[in-house]
Write a structure and sequence with these properties.
Elements (H helix, E strand, L loop, with lengths): L4 E3 L2 E3 L4 E2 L3 E2 L4 E3 L2 E4 L3 E4 L7 H12 L6 E3 L5 H4 L2 H7 L4 E4 L1 H9 L6 E4 L5 E3 L4 E6 L9 E5 L4 E3 L17 H13 L3 H11 L6 E3 L6 E2 H15 L5 E9 L4 H15 L5 E5 L5 H10 E11 L2 E2 L1 H12 L5 E8 L6 H10 L4 E10 L5 H15 L1
Parallel strand pairs: 7-8, 8-9, 9-10, 14-15, 17-18, 17-19, 19-21, 21-22
Antiparallel strand pairs: 1-6, 2-5, 3-4, 6-7, 11-12, 12-13, 13-14, 15-16, 19-20
Helix pairs in contact: 5-7, 5-9, 6-7, 8-12, 10-11
The protein binds flavin mononucleotide and fe (ii) ion (2 copies).
């Protein structure tokens, strides 16, 4: 990172659930930066849980200087939750943001004395450095913008290119937690993300400074851009099948494992199995988007489908799951209903091809259902 940029972000090692739902086995980081030309800009504030630590980082980085600008890229509280505290400490700072962000500011209880709203292509002269603003609406909130500094070939990308984990978590595997973050938080907004990627494609970028996760440079930056192009267009990253099961008493789970073995035996490169009742749902969502095929296996439940599967398919629908091939395995002891319900949920998604046969298991796998599973495995491998 260029010496004109100082990192002043914070790690939260204790937070267990990001946005009250995403498991954080390795905590979370919130990034914030100081950009120093002749004038000084602070890039975003901080999650309220880390407010004091951040103000301290900021004070140390500033030394005897005062910030001229606070650039607000995103109003979500994990970044703007310390805005009021910042304005109390530095009331003369001009807040720079999109018009939409200004509207949200009052709702979140912040009242800056001086606000400068900016729009696409506007620039701010920091004295030797230029901040050029790029609007990024619906990545993944409406007020989001990014900032490009041509002199430093640096893009401040807001939540895009972010990930779960503290700053130095799994440094050699950026994609794993970046993918889980992307699909669960931005998945629905592939079109707006693609739009911004197109806008920045013509820029010389050697550094990306996101709001979460490490600063990206060199090979890691190239790989992140490659993956974002696939992810935002709902393309296939890895050829393979995700087998997702939701089983009350374990028989459907065993059938799912058997089916996975059949798929492996047919030479499918990657077959992953997830237990929707016990495994991390966000990871199951991520894997569904990652691969080109999926099989959903569930018990029938009260003339419907077992709730963990219902939740999974509903979440996939919310996140705009699309352009995939899906097989269905249902289990029912007296009047199987899971298949019909899963099919209905899948039919509500764009370009999801349901592959035959729909396998029906009656309580436990029989000769007949085994033959159906073999036929489904053939169809998925073929
Ligand atoms: C609360 C409850 C509701 C159920 N509702 C149905 C149902 O509507 N239709 C049906 O055929 N089986 C129903 N079943 C039976 C399950 O589908 C049964 O557990 C399944 O056939 C065996 O697969 P499993 O071991 O994976 O759960 C129900 C079971 C429970 C515990
Ligand atoms: Fe956000
Ligand atoms: Fe964020």
């Amino acid at each position: 990172m260029n010496p004109a940029i100082t990192y002043i972000g914070c790690d939260d090692r204790d937070l267990q659930l990001f946005e009250s739902q995403y498991a954080l086995p390795e905590g979370m980081c919130y990034n914030s930066y100081l950009v120093s030309g002749g004038r000084i800009a602070v890039m975003d504030t901080m999650d309220p849980r880390k407010r004091d630590e951040w103000l301290d980082n900021l004070r140390k980085a500033l030394g005897s200087r005062k910030p001229d600008y606070l650039i607000v890229h995103h109003m979500e509280p994990d970044h703007s939750g310390s805005l009021s505290a910042f304005l109390e400490a530095y009331p003369e700072t001009t807040v720079v943001c999109s018009a939409k962000a200004q509207g949200l500011m009052a709702q979140f209880g912040a009242a800056p004395a001086s606000v400068q709203t900016v729009k696409e292509g506007d620039t701010l002269d920091l004295g030797g450095l230029t901040l050029r603003f790029i609007m990024a609406p619906m990545v993944h909130w409406p007020e989001v913008m990014m900032t490009y500094v041509p002199e430093l070939q640096t893009l401040f990308s807001a939540d895009a290119f972010g990930k779960f984990g503290v700053y130095h978590a799994d440094e050699d595997d950026w994609a794993c937690e970046a993918r889980r973050y992307y699909f669960n938080i931005c998945g629905k907004y592939g079109a707006p993300v693609s739009m911004v990627l197109k806008k920045v494609a013509s820029l010389q970028i050697s550094t990306i400074c996101p709001l979460h996760g490490p600063v990206l440079e060199g090979e890691r930056l190239a790989e992140a851009l490659r993956l974002y192009n696939i992810w935002s267009s709902y393309g296939v990253e890895t050829a393979g099948v995700l087998v997702a099961h939701a089983s009350i008493h374990g028989n459907t789970a065993r059938a799912a494992e058997q089916l996975a073995e059949m798929l492996r035996a047919r030479g499918i490169e990657r077959v992953a199995v997830t237990d929707l009742c016990r495994d991390d749902m966000a990871e199951a969502i991520e894997d569904a988007f990652r691969m080109d095929r999926m099989v959903v296996c569930a018990s029938s439940y009260d003339n419907n489908v077992f709730p963990p599967m219902h939740q999974f398919l509903w979440k996939l629908q919310q996140k705009a799951y699309q352009n995939r091939t899906v097989g269905i395995v249902e289990n029912g002891s007296w009047a199987p209903s899971a298949g019909r319900e899963m099919k209905a949920l899948l039919e509500g998604m764009k370009d999801v091809r349901i592959i035959e046969p729909l396998v029906t298991i009656r309580s436990t796998v029989s000769q007949e259902s085994l033959a159906q599973m073999e036929a489904l495995a053939d169809a998925l491998a073929g």
